[in-house]
Amino acid sequence: MELPAQGKALGEGAIPAVLQLGRGLTQLLNEVIEHQQLSVGLNDVSQKEEDEIIDVLAQACRDVATPLIVTVRSNERVNEVLSLARSKGKRVVTLISDLRGDSRDAFVGIDNRMAGQAAAHLIGQLISSETTPTAGVLLGDYAFNCHEDREIGFRSHLRTYFPKIQLADVTVGGKEDLSDQTYIAVKSLIKHYPEISAIYNVGAGNAGLAKALEEHDMAEKVCVVSHEADHITIPLLRNGTLNFVIAQDPRAMLDKALEIAKPTEPSIQIDNAIIDFGIYTRFNIPRFS
């Protein structure tokens, strides 16, 4: 099976990175790989079916001496392939979204539960004084552990500190960053909650979210908190459709993932490498975007 690799060719000693991400973040990571000339072969599997992803992972795991960086939905088949490879000596590093403990050696990414809490704090401070404040939650895919952790952090913080806020959630699901499904989900959310004050986008498609808000003339009326600073979200920040994005430096993530994948001192074991995240507005666009 031919892999759609980007960045450095896998035959040139590159570490394979099998990534199931939204197109904005995938493009941003690939730009970092090319600009920094990192020894990473990026395999974008975001639009592939489960069987194809399993095939890609199995092929990437054949050479147990070469580490693997991976971001995929968590399921039994994925965990089985990776845990078997690790039992043979393969080193596996999860990036952005974690997997089961026996499926990987280390996780590199932000504290997603804390990120959800930060989103809740922003929204709570802004809308809790309203008479009947309502916040929408666009749920991505629970098979991505990062989405689940963000939602848990968001709900728990609102429940503890802003119990007055009513939550209205919509599950988008589907392939990662599927704009059309997000568009339909947001239109439904607005129909049922026309007085909605804020939306937290856990991991759905930002382009579809923006399109639905603009069609209902609500882009400037609803406070929106989303994730990632990329070629999709930055224009939406600049025009005011998104109010805040929670994001991390992709270069810092990749550098740390490579450092752990090929440690200079193998005896030193790292389970989690938590990367700092920032909260960005149109007034402090990050340079890494």
From TrEMBL:
InterPro entries: Bact_Solute-Bind_Prot2, Peripla_BP_I, SBP_2_dom. Its main location: periplasm. It is found in: Periplasm. It comes from the Bacteria. One of its GO terms (cellular component) is outer membrane-bounded periplasmic space. It holds the Pfam family Peripla_BP_4. SUPFAM superfamilies: Periplasmic binding protein-like I (SSF53822). One of its GO terms (molecular function) is carbohydrate binding. Residues 46-262 form the Periplasmic binding protein domain. Gene3D superfamilies: 3.40.50.2300. One of its GO terms (biological process) is transmembrane transport. Belongs to the bacterial solute-binding protein 2 family. This is Periplasmic binding protein domain-containing protein. The lineage of its organism: Bacteria, Pseudomonadati, Pseudomonadota, Gammaproteobacteria, Enterobacterales.
